[in-house]
């Protein structure tokens, strides 16, 4: 009957231990729970898990139940030293019926008092993974109080050691992956910081030098920055440069285009929402302010946000706290704000569509980014930069004829740097030769037609002898080619040519181009 009761206790202990193993990946938590079960269910005292430290080559107690921190710290062994060291070295379990009569038992932890006067047995089992010993599991058993054979204890502890071995290995895998991810994150942060160094931003004009100086001054502060300038001037690039050169560089850089979202969705994107806050809110979601905690939030086109959102945004900037949509819990955040706009905010304030108090809160440090036409001396550098970038991406070695570079430099670039980048990419992708001449550029880039015509009008002759006289013929053929490529879908053909649907429709009417291929 006693043997049956013991079997029930063993099964109970193993069941509780299996639940403990499934409940956590923290080895300390798991080990403590296991040792507690051994003590309370099976009466095994001072359960100890000793693991090999691969750096020192020494065995050290990882977790112990019934030992103080000082006692646990003393539990260190060399491989082969004492009972613990010998079990690790041989990979075989050992049973010491009476530790008071065993000279190999070192009592290194000093947790048992006078061992010569106590009836304590010591059971020590290797912890293995795939046949390799990685540690040792040991327990004390007061043999005067137990009629259980040590062989039964050894059987249970052997099963337990196998389970612990798997838990240790899994924990090590998780820790290794965590360290790898941390190292990868550090590496990526270093790459981003290097990528967005001011030295990597293309431009040597006086206006850009003023921008660089302002960025250097403001990066190390907590001040809110307002980037002003036309679309396509590189406001996001400057915002990233400020972030990755600041003390918040290890934090997140979160961006949001305020003009791209309707009012209801914008509020949710900024501040998050609680589950059930509105139709479709099936779960709680963090907003951009929460995601940017400890880092930087970049709000592009901030001049387009509605007045109702402006009030809530002002509160966050003033009090650094807010509530999610549909929630009543106040959330505090530590966020550095960088805003950007191409709009005339002063005019918007006068018209009453932008709050004056929010304007002053945002306009702490304004940085004005010049339009590309205001820094023409940078165009040549930008052309070379984009040529190199897109040549690498497309495995090409395309060059521009000097005449093309000259014409690109004279162009006004209403779309600024973004338009120039798209233009260079289009030419690199579309060309079949290694050098792009004026007539090639004219076929691939719509805006160069008036530029070529203007040059011909001023000089009385085209810039290259091989330039076709009938530029309208070139333009007509290019439009037809684009239409054929995209199945005569005018909107897609217009995008290819850098035109709007309205412009391509006008040109098709002007050149009498049919709307369907069958009529052409």
Gyration radius, in Å: 37 Å
| Name of the CATH homologous superfamily of the largest domain | P-loop containing nucleotide triphosphate hydrolases
Q: So what's the overall shape?
A: elongated
Low-confidence stretches: 456-470
- What is the count of structural domains? 4
User: Helix fraction?
Assistant: 40-55%
Can you tell me the CATH architecture of the largest domain?
3-Layer(aba) Sandwich
Across the major sheet, the strand order is: 3-2-1-6-5-4
The biggest beta sheet is recorded as: 6 strands, antiparallel
* Strand residues, percent: 5-15%
How far the N terminus sits from the C terminus, by CA atoms, comes to 101 Å
**Number of extended strands:** 15
The CATH topology of the largest domain corresponds to Rossmann fold
Please work out how many helical segments DSSP would assign: 20
**Would you tell me the structural class of the helices and strands?**
alpha/beta
